[in-house]
Amino acid sequence: MIFSCTKDNLQKGLSVVSHLSNKQVNLPVLQNVHLKAEGGSIVLSTTNLEIATRINIRGKIDKTGEFTVPAKLFHDFVSLLPNDRVDVERIDNVLEVRCGDTATKINGIDAAEFPLIPQVETSAVIKMPAQLVRDAFSQVAFAVSRSEARPELSGVLLKFHENTLTLAATDSYRLSERKVLLQERTQDRQIIIPAQTVSEVSRMLAVFKDDPEGEDILELKLSDSQVVFAYGPAELITRTIEGNYPDYTQIIPTVFKTEVIVGRNEFIKAIKTASLFSRQGVFDIILQILPEEKKLTVTANEVTRGTNVVSCEAGITGTENKMTVNFRYLLDGLNAMSSEGVTLKMIDAVNPCLVMPNGLLELGSQTYIVMPIRQ
Amino acid sequence: MAAGPLHAYHSNKIMDTQELWETTLGELELELSKANFTTWFKDTFITEITHDHIVIAVPNNFTKTWLENKYHKSILKSLQRATSDAVREVTYNVEVKGSSSGSQPVPINNAHLDTSIAFSRHDAQEDLIGNTLNPRYTFDAYIVGKQNEFAHAAAMAVPKNLGTTYNPLFIYGGVGLGKTHLLQAIGHEVVHLNPGKRVLYVTSEKFTNDFIQAVRTGRAREFKDIYRTVDVLIVDDIQFFSGKVETQEEFFHTFNALHQQNKQIILSADRPPKLITALENRLLSRFEWGMTADISSPDFETRVAILEAKCRERQWTMPQEVVHHVADNIQSNVRELEGALNKIIAYHQLKNQVPTLESVSPIVLSFRPVDIIKTATPRELMHVVAEYYDITMDELVGKSREKRLAFPRQIIMYLMREDMSYSYPSIGQELGGRDHTTAMHAYSKIKRCLDSDEKLCHDMEIIKQRLYTA
To answer: Quick one: closest CA in B to A247, which residue?
Structure first.
């Protein structure tokens, strides 16, 4: 195998694929990136046996062939090369890399040992706006359950209905939902994708974020138990999580006693202040709504440290109200929003509380629910 | 049914799918590097054997592709060796262990009803309360016979009158007779009838461990918050509380706290409350407050009904004479009955054969050789009885005729006569040189008592169970 390409192309390719390749200890070849030069394209791929990523990079091929080298090492190394042409050649069990003044030999493993990436027989393709999906991923993925007790909650739900994609994630203490409009109508379907896939796809989208060539379309190719995310020259193949996602829409309350509009940054600051005085391991803060004084107060009380009360000005409709929540969950939700103000909707101290951004752009597209801490 | 070539292999050795796969893996392990072996063969198993075709479940598509392309020949060869060339075809299928049957993991507890995910209150509660009930154990799946109809009726009444009619409900019976099933069925029914009620099922061991953990980490309050706020507390196998003074005290307070708020408490043990040794009196009296119901070994008809129900559940047909044979030979407990049936099904599915009396009897025999073949000696019998009634061997064979000694002695005499067919004079001899008329009297007295004395029947059953299964 002999090929040449620009350092930039190689580095970009590696930053898409190399992240997936560490962690595996059993089979050394899984730490490697697979390089293949054939039929006019150079393909880099890695896998952890749950997910596989693959990217085509532009370059000139002088001799076809394939080989694998440690991914992290190769990526770190390429990043430090001068911005120049890179010549790559495989000689026996060594990859020779020449660029500018450097000449390097990297020990690798024969490509025959590298796992075969399963072929996916695509049954349908859905086109999605890439950067919007990337934002949406970051707005829901943090709420995924870390426990393995309920596998279906360990992933993000993608629900397609007409021309709307709804993403949702929950660990059953809080839930984050985000809706994204698609260009075209799709068939109704639901898939659950593992949390790690979500972060890998985000990484893939981020690499090309400022690339003028990058098209803003993320394709989702569906098959039985696997899906493929394709973005420009890059592709990510992943298993989906089997099982039925619980019908969470039922638990989103629709009737409330109190609605509060408050500045998001001010609210976040108040919560962070109070959090210093919340109980370790419980993370409790008390939200109190005082319609007469037009105030939302955040209170925390820890016996050994002291008490803290912060009030925020707020627009309030409805009755006085009070609830105790885990501040981390509330902060997670608020940080995932970008609007200036947020709306807080409450029933009482034992029912879930709803948080929504109230900017015109985001209206109705994002919903966050937190369960109270029972006293 | 066409007898496929797989039918013929290993005709005299019982081998189920798991064993077959283990054998194959054993061979493959020698051919491959450790890294390759663990990576590609982890979580694989045989799901289906039909005719000459074996389907192997693999955890993901990567493994599937790899096995198909790289190891197919070795796998096929090993399987053929293990089955004397009966296998012609091997295919691979992505399937995750545990999710294969049912395919809908529906956790059942009050926090997660299967239709809504009704958010759990957070705190440590979720961890402790989540998923404590086994979805298989429902009233529908519970088979009622003479021996358990009373317990069943009492259990059915509980969800309808939570905390009022029978509180606490105490169910007792020997091992493998369905106590846990009944207890969990109550839990399911409560959740079903009153969504939102918080049901907590724990074994006494879990209760003890939670308590110790809570005390050690200084989180006793949390422990109390959890155990004292549930609507229904189910504690299984409370005989293990015996001797644990601190735990008993905590349980006593938990019990009172719940009982005062009219929360339902359901308990089980392997013997009646009175016979649980080293249990404090105040606890004992509380256990007897409500309703006590027993479950004893199923009679023949019930055993047949259980086998038939299990066959239906597995969609497997077995000739009636075979069902009767199994029910006849495995008598003491339902768990073993089920185990034997599983083995029979596995064996015959593998061989693709209809079970017959001949093919089943070695399984039935091999299944419980100890239980069926074991004969206890008089020595062992005396030990068991002495231990059960908490007296010493010397006392047992001694001269004293105190009632607490005489009664166990009579039980021994009865059992020696009834189960071991000893002559009256030799029975007398064994028990400290007593006259043969004493033995005769004892035999007829116990036999008479067995007809009317519930407690004696129960004692007898436990003694037999210990004697023949130890």
So the answer is: B116
The residues near B205 (Cβ < 8 Å, ≥ 6 apart) are: B237, B240
> With an 8 Å Cβ cutoff, is B112 touching chain A?
yes
Residue in B69, B107, B120 nearest the CB of A116? B69
Q: B375: which DSSP letter? A: -
Residue B117: its chain A contacts at CB < 8 A?
Answer: 170, 172, 246-248, 250-251
Residues of A in contact with B120 (CB under 8 A): 172-173, 371
Q: CB of B122 within 8 Å of any CB in chain A? A: yes
- Quick one: tokens of B171? 């169910």
E strands, B227-308, where?
Answer: 232-236, 264-269, 291-295
Instruction: For residues B431 and A126, give the distance between their C-alpha atoms in angstroms, rounded to a whole number.
Output: 86
Cα B82 to Cα B14, B21, B77, B371, distances in angstroms: 13, 9, 9, 32
pLDDT tens-place values along chain B, 470 residues long: 444 445 444 433 445 777 888 888 888 888 888 888 888 888 888 888 877 888 998 888 888 888 988 889 889 888 888 887 788 889 998 887 644 333 333 332 323 322 233 444 433 333 334 456 777 788 888 888 888 888 898 888 888 888 887 888 999 888 888 888 888 888 888 888 877 778 888 888 888 888 888 888 877 777 887 888 888 899 998 888 887 888 888 888 888 888 888 889 999 988 888 777 777 778 888 888 888 888 888 888 888 888 888 888 877 888 888 888 888 887 777 888 888 888 888 888 777 778 888 888 777 776 654 444 456 788 888 888 888 888 888 888 888 888 888 889 999 999 888 888 888 888 888 888 888 899 999 999 998 888 888 888 888 888 887 887 65
Assess: ipTM above 0.95.
Answer: no
Chain A CA closest to residue B113: A246
CA B345/CA B312 separation, integer angstroms: 12
Q: What residues of A are in contact with residue B111 (Cβ under 8 Å)?
A: 172
C-alpha to C-alpha distance for B86 and B76, rounded to whole angstroms:
11
Two structure tokens written together for B177:
């007779």
Contact B62 A49 (CB under 8 A): yes
Q: Which residues contact A304 (CB under 8 A, 6 or more apart)?
A: none
- Measure CA of the first residue to CA of the last residue in chain A; give whole Å: 67
Are A145 and A172 in contact by the 8 Å Cβ rule? The answer is yes
**Phi then psi dihedrals of residue B226, to 5 deg:** -75, -50
Helices H / strands E in chain A, number of each: 6, 23
- Cβ atoms of A205 and A130 within 8 Å: the answer is yes
| B264-269 vs A32-38, strand pairing mode | unpaired
